[in-house]
Amino acid sequence: MNAATTTDEAPPTHPRSAAAHRSRPGAVTERTTQYETFAVTPLTPHLGAEVDRLDLSQPLDDGQLADLHRAFADWSVLVFRDQHLDREAHKRFGRYFGTLHTHPMNYSRDGDPEILVVRTTANSAYTAGDGWHTDVTCDAIPPMASALYIRETPECGGGDTLYADMYLAYEMLSEPMQQMLEGLTAIHDGAIPYVGSYKSTPPEGGYPRNEHPVVAVHPVTGRKVLYVNSGFTSHIRGLQPWESRSLLDSLYRMIATTPRLHCRVEWRPNTLTLWDNRCTQHHAVWDYYPYTRSGERVSVLDEAPPRGVGD
Ligand code: SIN
């Protein structure tokens, strides 16, 4: 008799075998690359995809919109190349997902409150988003998505944006850690980036400061995400200050130093990238001084505040 049939125990799996990979957290099983109206080319198997053949300068039809929403839920970060958009086309694209958001730092700026200019030159004191963060989580209802349209890339290369998968970040935690974090909330404070890093003068009453669950549930996919970020999260409520600091620092270190969580968008002129702030973080890499990188961003308000597990 074959030895393999004499025991109920599963044979040990080699750490790099297909079986071991299938049982890893975040193993990818059900994502498509072929939609009815377009195809996508993944950047990684779990995060980020380039969309083929979709011209965003023209209004999308119902079939394209349905596919766009499905692809967004599947890939979280969507890259659209060779787009020629004016502000109205850019904003129309954002409105496919909801009402456009006004950035808290736009309160004193001239121009269009729904457009955030993202421009870094040799004279810039900082570049927006140069550190791991999720957009504007200090708001009571943070933007669910952002769409950045880059027209000008640095002439000697660089200026990529890194994205990190917060579904996978949650799934890679141990079960006891997941359980502890699920019961907690954290404070997200706009003064940390906007005053601390960007040195801007706060509006009357200060920048927004709000409390959100440490583990949130994505409203479309129903999957759990780790929802703290080094850009905005000041502390976890109910812990001793040193406990909160060391826990947050450990989570931030895990996010920044686990390449398996990441995908990288290499910009070319006239690229638009859409990302889901409910399940990703990003980091704009400022490695191109003294060259210029320039574009504009619109963000889309969510319909409700982030929901915790069991809410
Ligand atoms: C941001 O929205 O945080 C900026 C992203 C980027 O410039 O790549």
Structure summary:
With 311 residues, the chain is α+β, with helices and mostly antiparallel strands. It has helices at 18-22, 62-75, 87-95, 166-171, 175-182, 191-197, 241-257; strands spanning 40-42, 49-51, 77-80, 116-120, 143-152, 161-165, 185-189, 209-213, 215-217, 224-226, 233-236, 262-265, 271-276, 280-284, 293-301, 307-308. The strands form 4 sheets. Strands 1-2-3-13-5-15-4 form a 7-stranded mixed β-sheet. It has a 3-stranded antiparallel β-sheet with strand order 12-6-14.
CATH overall fold name = Double-stranded beta-helix
Level-2 CATH architecture: 4-Layer Sandwich
Per CATH, the superfamily is Clavaminate synthase-like
In the CATH scheme, the class would be Alpha Beta
What topology, given as strand order, has the largest sheet?
A: 1-2-3-13-5-15-4
Number of domains: 1
Largest sheet: 7 strands, mixed
Instruction: Sum up the overall morphology in one term.
Output: globular
Indicate the percent of residues in helices: 10-25%
Mean pLDDT: 90
Q: Beta fraction of the residues?
A: 15-25%
Count of individual helical segments: 7
Annotation, overall tally of beta strands: 16
